[in-house]
Amino acid sequence: MSEEVGKLPRLGEKAPEFEAVTTQGTLRLSDFKGGWLVLFSHPADFTPVCTTEFIAFSEIFDELKKRNTQLLGLSVDSVSSHIAWIRNIQEKMGVKVPFPIIADLDKKVGTLYGMIHSGESKTEAVRCVFVIDPEGVVRAMIYYPLTTGRNMSEILRLLDALQTADKNKVATPANWKPGEPVIVPTPKTQEEAEERLKQGYDCKDWYFCKKKL
Amino acid sequence: MPCVTGDGKPTTSAKKLLESLKDKSLSPEDLATVVDQPLFRVRSSLRELVAAGWIRESEGRYELTEQGTREALDIEK
User: Fold this and answer.
1) Is residue A2 pLDDT above 70, yes or no?
2) Which residue of A has its CA nearest to B44?
3) B19-39 per-position pLDDT tens digit
4) Of A24, A82, A87, whose CA–CA distance to B1 is shortest?
5) What are the residue ranges spanned by the domains of chain A?
6) pLDDT tens digit sequence for A97-134
7) Residues of A in contact with B1 (CB under 8 A)
């Protein structure tokens, strides 16, 4: 593992704590405890793909709020650059960016979260997304290259899937969307396996059953 | 500090927090509801208001100091 990437966060573990200067004051990760957080990085302010992503993240902000979820952005640019850029987005594109953006000039947070990948860029963060739950645990991670903007529908779908799994103690199948059948957790014992096919689920076999919520 | 203007006065959002604490002590969660700000911003702002000497924390609840009371009432120092 290269020095720039360092220790990566792991799914199911506490997200690394940090305190960082942002466009909405100095924030700590623990300030977000009690709700979900989508922490994401972008390579640089005043660049086109990043601008489309900021517009797209702003457009799903209200949907995230309905899901008890906040957004927190990050790049290695300064607070002044962030402020100038979001003012530019508002002036030129008509979109107000409502979420805070970390100014990670010393790459402290970027290093903690494995955001700098030297094969892509030695100085800028790649496009990362960390979904962190109300207990501060990393539940999902996405890493995208500099060339490719992220998909907001997938981020919302991912969040819905995680929250549905937590609330109902189920799993979600490939391409799942809210409202579709979910996966019943696999039996853990032989006895449960024998009982499973009699429980009224939609089963292909004892280990593969779905149900509607 | 985002809660303090260049001339040492509370910002608009900070003033809202101070006014909400007039004659009462509240938790960050209660304050977030009262001032209609996200909880993360309230927690961050409370740290800064404590550092500015305008509020104090006790057992997870916050109340105005004498200095904070003056700011909340907009009395000249």
Assistant:
1) no
2) A27
3) 999 989 999 999 999 999 999
4) A24
5) 19-150, 169-211
6) 999 999 999 999 999 999 999 999 989 999 999 999 99
7) 25-26
User: A196 is written with which tokens?
Assistant: 């499973």
CA distance A169 to A182: 10
Mutation choice for A interface testing from B3, B40, B46, B50 by most A CBs within 10 A: B40
Residue B51 lies in a domain: yes
Q: Which amino acid appears at position A52 of this protein?
A: T
Residue among B29, B39, B44 minimizing CB distance to A25: B44
* Residues A22-70: tens digit of each pLDDT: 999 999 999 999 999 999 999 999 999 999 999 999 999 999 999 999 9
Tell me the CATH architecture of domain A19-150.
Answer: 3-Layer(aba) Sandwich (3.40)
Identify whether B66 is part of a domain: yes
* Of A31, A34, A35, Cβ closest to residue B44: A31
**Domain membership flag for residue B19:** yes
CATH number for the domain including B17? Answer: 1.10.10.10
Q: How is residue A25 written in tokens?
A: 């004051």
Q: Which of A24, A26, A35 sits opposite B39 (nearest CB)?
A: A35
Which CATH superfamily, name and number, covers A169-211? Antioxidant, Horf6; Chain A, domain2 (3.30.1020.10)
Reply yes or no on whether A209 is catalytic.
no
Domain that holds residue B25: 12-73
Burial class of residue A17 in the structure, from the number of CB atoms within 10 Å of its CB (0-12 exposed, 13-18 middle, 19+ buried): exposed
Give the distance from CA A116 to its chain's centroid.
17
Whether B36 maps to a domain, the answer reads: yes
